[in-house]
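Appendix B. Chain record.
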Amino acid sequence: METVRAFLAIPVSRETAGALKALVARLKPRLPEARFVGAHQWHLTLHFFAALTPDEVDRVREVGRGAVATVSTFLLSFRGLGAFPDTKRARVLWLGVGEGARECAALHERLRAALRGQGLWVEERPFQPHLTLARFRQPRPGGIVEELRQGSGHEVAPFLVERVTLFRSVLTSQGAEHTVLDEFRLGGATGEGGGPEEVHGGP
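Structure tokens predicted for this chain:
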């Protein structure tokens, strides 16, 4: 049976995307060997699914819609640079969450409980909300300690989180290509202008 690679995520707003472009422009000269994520890939992953059957996709839709319907909209800002697995062996450069971190974690937990309730697989590792900025093919000699120190206080102005998006992810030779499968509005979301931009990209 054909399966779908997919994930639930918070897409960024147009204004936030503009601020992130300015940050990336400052970082690129300092990290020439990094492969920076395109603006079409910017989002905050809540749950990732390596392989869903068509029936499971429908169940994720049902869970997502129900789980977020009673969650109030909240403000979310990105702040502080970090690296996975650590600064000395950096393979991923990310931007952490400032305002809204508690609400984001609560949303993640609410979705996880609902997904489990439907018998769907969820990751057990601790949730660390972040937005991926760049990846390294090989750990950089000497790490990226200085770059992280200089960006430690950087903060992107908050935006209103109004929806969670279910993306399908297809791996290609050029990287992951994503399409929107469904969107679930949080309680209190108006759906009027200025909402998050429909971006497509990898988790």
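Further analysis of this model is presented in Appendix C.
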